[in-house]
Amino acid sequence: MSTTEAARVASVARHDRRVRLWSIAGVLALATGVAASSLGAVLTEGAWWFPLMAVVVAVLASGAVFRSVNSRAWLGSVVAAAGGLVSLVLMFAPQTAILGIIPTADTVSRFGQLVTQGQASIAVQSFPADAFVGIVFLICLGAAAVAVAMDVTAFVLQKSALTAIPLTILLLVPSFVRTELHDAFVFAATAIAYVAVLLVASPQKSTRSAWPLISAALVLSLIVPVVLPSVEPAEQLGSGQGLISTGVNPIINLSTDLRRGVPLRALTYASESGGEYLRVAALDVFSEDTWEPSQNEPTAAGSVTEFPIAPGLSDEVPREEKVLQVEIDRIRGKLLPVPYATANISGLEGDWSWEPDGLTVSTDDSNSRGQNYEVAFVSPAPSVEQLEAAPTTLPDGFERYLELPETLPSIVTETAHAVAGGETTRFDQALALQSFFADGDFTYSEDAPVAEEYDGSGAGVLGEFLAAKSGYCVHFASAMAAMARSLEIPSRVVVGFTPGERIADDSDERRFLVSTDNLHAWPELYFPTIGWIRFEPTVSVGSAPRFAQSVEDDPSTPDVDESQPEPVATPTSTSPETPGARPDLPLDEDSSAATPNGVEISPWWWLVLALPVLLLIPALVRVTRRALRLAAVRQGETGAAWREVRDTAIDLGYPVSATATPRQQFEHLTEHLGDSGTSALSSLLGQVEASAFSTRPETVRVGAVTNVLAALRASLGWRERLRAALAPRTAFSPRDRRG
Asked: With a cut of 70, which residues of the chain have pLDDT below it?
């Protein structure tokens, strides 16, 4: 063959090799993207899929580019991993890197923050969850790991069939969250992509072998998720055992948190004036199932250093300016406890914003846990005369605060009109409704609603609650708000905390401790020119607001200043007679002693992390048994030496019977060993037989055993040795008496 012809043949070979490399990389990227689409069952929208695919393509393309010019496959996987890292830096932390792509210590710190944010978002959201930046980073990080695993499997190990393992992990993520979330269509599509991987990466396979594989995958797509144990999402589990989760709608978790066996420390705050109610969420949409916050109003983009004036609050209404110093302990979520009506907040970490109607505070990429902040707020103090004189004409858009579901039981509206329909003003109607619950025949119970199957806040449970006249704060708040709407009074339900227990009192400030026992829900009613006013219908819980009787001081009563509202009673301790309180239980200030910390990350991530450990269990068992046997050999146990040789040979795939005699096993092994290996094995057999039959047994050296083991391994290729190390056949065989 001429030099020119040889060069042409070599060029064609290089071209064919590159085509195959890029074909395999492309089909691996396709299969990963198809399998990753299963995450759509647990995440909203699909924008997260594009950065995920960018990372996958970066990994596989980097490896393919390197292998196009260098034949060392393992170095290609190293380059692929580096390409994935560069893509993560470029997308999530370019400002921390040199030239936007070379990571630094600041990049590592930023990645740590994103991991924390992602874990917190997963923990507090319901499914499908919003793919905030922290969650997208975790997804992309996992995608990079999966893509590198696919690259190593296909190019280094050259075992394309094993790519099913990372693909299956991606497919089963929704099923680990909840079994019914699996998608048989995605399983089928991934099966087809997997068959494509086998056909492209293994030229010896024919299309005829594809159909059995596809059929098997379709069967597994229906069976596997059903037999897997389901894991309830963090939102439905409440707040976990050691944390209080506000979630997206904290009213969902409220009953679970109230029924804790041991109260958890939520926060502390310092106040110069006394205890305050702290609001977490304002729920203004009332449905058959629950009260929930509006979804059609965007959160204001303004800074939390300056809030708008409280809706409806006119200049004529007296008010008091106050300040609280708040330290969050075991509250985790995207919502921040604040008093009403907040004017500004300082000291927060992360990006926070306010919602203009409810003046609630939330974040998309931070967390309330561990926050230490100062909040300045205005406390309105309208008089009775002002409330009674409030006009009935509502501002534009307030009709939504009067909406009631069609499924609302008629007893709710009928009771509202019977109790308060005859009052002359809407404020008098509100007081009548409050008195109906707080001063009537109702009792507080956190257990009865569950037994009677009317737990919750939706329209469907209110009829049962009014009939039973027993429930907890969610029922009282929901019922009064619904009844107020039936009387044309705008209303909403607020979830938050009652003032808590006073723990310190000095000349400058009072400190209060707030725990899960202080979790509460109450109604707020709207009065034009006054704004939103808190009411307290729940029996024996919290304190009803007090209102001044006159905006002018009566000169006939010099000892009383009627122009000032009566102070609001602040509970300084929990009374044993108060329903719902648990004074006999210690306050769990540490929480670690009584209940373990809540899991910070979703359970399926733990599975991904634990899977390699589970796969290595046989290898760990085998290594331990070998160490015990060699220790026995040092103590003179000759039989342990041959048992180790026998099991090592079986692990390596030699045709050795475990029930044969040592001499028979020796004869089988010598057929495959070279001269040096046969000599070492013969010497060891002589020592074993002498120990068994001679009156003067020889001592077996550990070195002699390890030499035989090394000879057995050296006679085989690296693949057989790797298989024997990771998946030993004798790992779980019956143990011999001494190892």
From this structure: 1-13, 15-16, 44-46, 120-130, 175-184, 202-262, 295-302, 447-457, 504-508, 548-616, 676, 692-698, 732-739
Coil vs helix vs strand at 249: coil
Question: CA–CA separation, 56 vs 142, rounded Å?
Answer: 10
Neighbours of 454 (CB within 10 A): 20
Helix axes of 164-177 and 133-151: crossing angle, nearest 10 degrees: 150
Q: List the alpha helices (DSSP H) in 580-616.
A: 603-615
- In b/e form, how buried is each residue of 499-521, taking b as 16+ CB within 10 angstroms? bbbbeeeeeeebbbbbbbbbbbb
Cα separation, 428 vs 432, whole angstroms:
6
Using the structure block, give the residue that is written with the tokens 């990429």. 365
**What sign does the CA torsion over 269, 272, 275, 280 have?**
negative
Q: Please report, for residues 24, 96, 100, 116, the alpha-carbon distance to residue 104 in angstroms, rounded to integers and kept in the order given.
A: 33, 7, 10, 19
Annotate 656-709 with three-state secondary structure.
Answer: CCCCCCHHHHHHHHHCCCCHHHHHHHHHHHHHHHHHHHCCCCCCCCHHHHHHHH
d(CA 285, CA 278): 21
pTM above 0.85, yes or no: no
d(CA 120, CA 600): 7
Reported in sequence order, the residue ranges of 100-211 that DSSP labels E, i.e. its strands, are none
pLDDT tens digits for range 326-384: 998 877 778 889 999 899 999 988 888 888 888 888 887 778 888 899 999 999 989 99
The conformation of residue 735, written as its DSSP 8-state character, comes to P
Q: Which of 625, 627, 431, 667 is nearest to 527 (CA)?
A: 431
Q: State whether the Cα torsion 653-655-659-664 is positive or negative.
A: negative
Nearest to 246 by CA among 371, 113, 341, 373: 371
Comparing CA positions, the residue from 117, 60, 48, 109 lying closest to residue 84 is 60
pLDDT value of residue 57: 92
Strand partners, 271: 324, 510
Residue 330, φ and ψ in degrees, nearest 5: -115, 30
Residues forming a β-bridge with 522: 494
Peptide bond into 149 cis (omega under 30): no
Q: What is the CA radius of gyration of the chain?
A: 35
